[in-house]
Amino acid sequence: MQAFLLCALRSAVVALAAVLIHLVASPADAWQTRPSMQAKPNSSDALYGASKKYEGSSEYVHLKYNMGPVLSSNITVHVIWYGTWQLPQQSIILDFIGSISAASVSRPSVAGWWSIVRKYTDMTGQNVSGTVQLGKQFNDIHYSHGKSLTRVSIQSVIKTAVTARWRPLPVDQNGGVYLVLTADDVYVQDFCSVCGFHYFTFPSIVGSVLPYAWIGNSKKLCPRTCAYPFAVPDYIPGLKPLKSPNGDAAVDGMVSVIAHEMAEMATDPLANAWFAGNEPSSPVEIADLCQGIYGTGGGGSYTGQMLVGKDGATYNMNGYRRRFLVQWVWNHLVSYCSGPNAVDQFS
């Protein structure tokens, strides 16, 4: 196992060298929560890849394993709260993270959704870990890098958190992943065109290779883009927004993006494991393939069959204290999008 980890690290260093040579940071995923009718070209498409959607069809999907590592060790999620956050907002997100490995939760459950992610293996046959636990948290309430961030400066935010004099985050190279969650008054490069992305940190900036993801709160900037389907874009006429399960459309929308990035960090942490397409710098990963699908029959502007509570809120899975609406992921064993609320799994 140690030899394999050394090999994986060498692969990361090689990939890093290529990135530095081209002077471009290429996050492995740039994702929109809403279904895309047509990719809109912008200045970043050539660098980061346009959002792709396959409507759950296996005909056009050629997902393959590219010999890189998956997160087979116990996964620890370290959270960076960048900017001003309210405790109820944090509670929704932390409860979701705590639900990924939660047992004894009624079906359909968040853990049932993660069981699909767990089906992915590395070259030794080790599955993605079934243990996902909350690690340390860092509150960057002073906006240490301002309220307008570039994609690369997200890594500087992580550096600030792991080098802080007061309660720094650990540099966790054994299953640690880092979530940079920006408040609703923070703009990140290409935000609204994309709602989140994941990649790994550069040793030249952070000092280590660490999987990380950024997800933004879209309440003030673009809820119709990144809080879908709790807010609906103008180009889908007649579609009404759904009632969010936890009373905060923007944060409930963030939960699905966090889930999307968590699934892809677990199966493609160094951008060299599970993805479709021929370009590792902008792969189509297991959650990209199911964009906008939350239930059986989903595709296009139809989200699929979901559940509605007595309070009128829409959800598709239960956590240990809350309900959530989370996008499905690609199941490579059956070659279609899957979720715990699928009609053939839940009754």
- The average pLDDT score comes to 86
Please state the oligomeric state of the protein chains shown: single chain
How much β-strand is present in the residues?
15-25%
Could you give the distance between the termini? 41 Å
Instruction: Report the sheet with the most strands, covering strand number, pairing sense and barrel closure.
Output: 5 strands, mixed
Structural classification: alpha/beta
- Level of helix content? 10-25%
Number of strands: 15
Tell me the number of structural domains: 1
Query: What's the overall geometry?
Result: globular
Q: Total number of helical segments?
A: 7
Read across the widest sheet, the strand sequence of neighbours is 3-2-5-8-7
Describe this structure in words.
With 347 residues, this protein is an alpha/beta fold. The chain has one domain. It contains 7 helices and 15 strands. Strands 3-2-5-8-7 form a 5-stranded mixed beta sheet, sandwiched between helices. Helix 3 packs parallel to helix 7. The chain is globular and about 50 Å long. The protein starts with a helix and ends in a 9-residue tail after the last strand. The N terminus is likely disordered. It comes from Trapa natans (Water chestnut). Belongs to the EXORDIUM family. This is Protein EXORDIUM-like 3. InterPro entries: EXORDIUM-like (IPR006766).
